[in-house]
User: Fold this.
Amino acid sequence: MKSLLDFDSEHLWHPYAALKNTPARFLAKSAHGTTIETADGLKLIDAVSSWWCMAHGHNAPEIVEAIQKQSAKVCNVMIGGFTHGPAIGVGEKLVTSLPEGENKIIFAAKYRNSPTPSSILHIFSINKVVKTSITPLFRKRS
Assistant:
């Protein structure tokens, strides 16, 4: 059986990497705070914040607890045709930040690896179809 790194090297194409002759990868075993530990025990400082997802540190206890608590109820339910308390709760918080006269929040699926382009695309589509003036540049009202 192939090792994890051998399989990775042979079959997985990583972002910003060439298809051939890529450098060896680190095999992460765990991550806590700002440190990632590799399978061979090397401890590395995550100086790139794991591409923006580590503002609170890896495995921040309060975030892990919140995820566990929520996933015990509803892990993920598509928002198309369904709704649920957490989505409504986020919507209630976000709607207070919309510009005067706006009252719609859209939960958009990933588009090109980022929800932002998808949201902007949907906003422009809505503007075209229903002739509204929704702007993708939301800000907190003073």
About this structure: The helical segments are 4-11, 49-52, 61-73, 85-95, 115-130. The chain has a mean pLDDT of 75. The first strand starts at residue 28 and ends at 32.
